[in-house]
Amino acid sequence: MQLTARKAQPWVSILLIGLLLVHPFVTARIGAFLFVLASLGALSLSITRRDRILRIYFFMASALLLWSVFWNVQEGAHRIFVYLLCTATYFLFIIIVINDLLRSTEVTKNEIFALINCYLIAGTVFSFIYELSYFLDPASLSFQTGSIGNHSVFLYFSFSTITTLGYGDIVPVAPFLRHVAVLEAIFGQFYIAIVVAFILSRYIQHRSAPPQA
Q1: pLDDT band of 176, cuts 50, 70, 90
Q2: CATH class for the domain made up of 6-208
Q3: What's the pTM?
Q4: Closest by alpha carbon to 48, among 2, 114, 105?
Q5: Domain spans of the chain?
Q6: 3-state secondary structure (DSSP) of residue 175
Q7: CA-to-CA distance for 126 and 130, rounded, in angstroms?
Q8: Average pLDDT, whole number, for the chain?
Q9: Cβ distance 61 to 89 under 8 Å?
Q10: Closest Cα to residue 39, out of 153, 122, 108?
Q11: Nearest-CA neighbor of 6 among 85, 117, 86?
C-alpha cells in the first residue's frame, strides 16, 4: 500500500526550501518552532488518509508541539525535546517516502520532488544530531569564527558534509561526531549514486515508453 500522497511532494519541497531560506533570520527558539511545524506539515501533506497509524502519530506529535511551546522550562531542555521530536518525524518521513519510491511502478515528477525532499530532510536530521551533540558537549565541534548564532550554523555544516564540500571552517572533534560526519558523507554519495540514479532511470524509461493503445 502506498503511504505517501503522490501530488503532495512539490508542496513539501516549497515548504522545506522556504524554511531553509527563512531560518537564518530568526531566533533559535523560533527556528526550532518552525522546524517542528515544517516536519509535521511535511508528514501531514505526505501521508494518505487511509493510513491511521501515521495519522495518530501526526496528531500526537502536534499535541506534543503545542505542549512544548507553552512548556515553561529551561531553553536547553526545550530545545532537546523539540529537536528529538523533529528528528523522529523527519526520519519517519524519509522511511515512508523512500519505501514508496522503490516500490512505485510509475515514476512521475512527483517522485522526483520526493527525491529532493528526502535529501533536504536527511541533511536537516544530521544537523539536529550535530547541534544536540554540541549542546551536550561544546568541545565536540571546533569553529573558526568562535561564535555560534543559531541552528543555521549546523545546517550549513550538515549540508557541507552531505555534499562532501568540507570547507574546513567547522571541524568535528569528538570521535562520535567524526563517525556521524563520515556516515552522512557516505549516505550523501550512496543516495545520489544509487537511489537517485535508480529513480531517474525509471523516470526516463517511463517518459520514453510508447503510449499504450
Answers
A1: very high
A2: mainly alpha
A3: 0.80
A4: 2
A5: 6-208
A6: helix
A7: 6
A8: 78
A9: yes
A10: 122
A11: 117
Cα→Cα distances 151→22, 167, 173, 189, 207, Å: 12, 18, 19, 24, 40
Q: pLDDT, tens digit, for every residue of 106-133? A: 777 888 888 888 898 899 889 888 988 8
Evaluate if residue 50 carries a pLDDT over 90: no
Strands (E), 35-188: 141-143, 170-172
> Other C-beta atoms within 10 Å of 108: how many?
15
142 has which bridge partners?
171
Q: C-alpha cell of 167?
A: 570547507
What distances in angstroms separate CA 201 from CA 28, 136, 163, one per listed residue? 41, 43, 22
- First-to-last C-alpha distance (Å) of the chain: 28
Q: Can you read off the three cell numbers belonging to residue 58?
A: 501526526
DSSP state of 8: G
